[in-house]
Amino acid sequence: MRSRKRRRTLKSLGQSNCEGYLDFLFCFSLLYSPISYSCLLLLVLPKILPFTFGDEPSHLGESTTVQCSVSVGDLPMKFAWKLNGKPVSEIAGIHSGAFGKKASVLSIELLVEYHAGNYTCVVENSAGTSSYLSELIVNGTKSVLICFDLFFSPSPFNPIYSSRNF
């Protein structure tokens, strides 16, 4: 979980001031008054619930859906999905969208080879950024079809790469 420190100021009681970094306690006092007040400025990072693409590898041609949900954290939140560090919006066949205020869904209707890899859900709010990574394994991405010439003399080995399972 990563976070960025940001300075926050709260001015709600006339000439009062409350400042803090993330979730630290700072005091403020009213000008022209001997009375001192304390405030707790809490900025809560998003806590992402663990998600997976399942216990078994997926197969070419199947579909898959996964949900990134946040259990705690300040609103509003901004969700982003990445595949191997690249935004999924740049990758064909992958769709994502909001599901309420604290969740985002990623959906792939037809799995192909380049959909395999590490998917990261990145959630940002006023307190900072959190991320969670899950791997999608797609069977059939590394199959090799080996052809032998049974009637003629041996020839150089020329494998044919295919994405099909044999």
UniProtKB/TrEMBL annotation:
SUPFAM superfamilies: Immunoglobulin (SSF48726)
TM ranges: 21-45
Name of one Pfam family that matches: Ig_3
Alphabetical list of SMART domains matching this protein: IGc2
Keywords, sorted A to Z: Membrane, Transmembrane, Transmembrane helix
Residue span, Ig-like domain: 46-139
Protein name: Ig-like domain-containing protein
Lineage: Eukaryota, Metazoa, Ecdysozoa, Arthropoda, Hexapoda
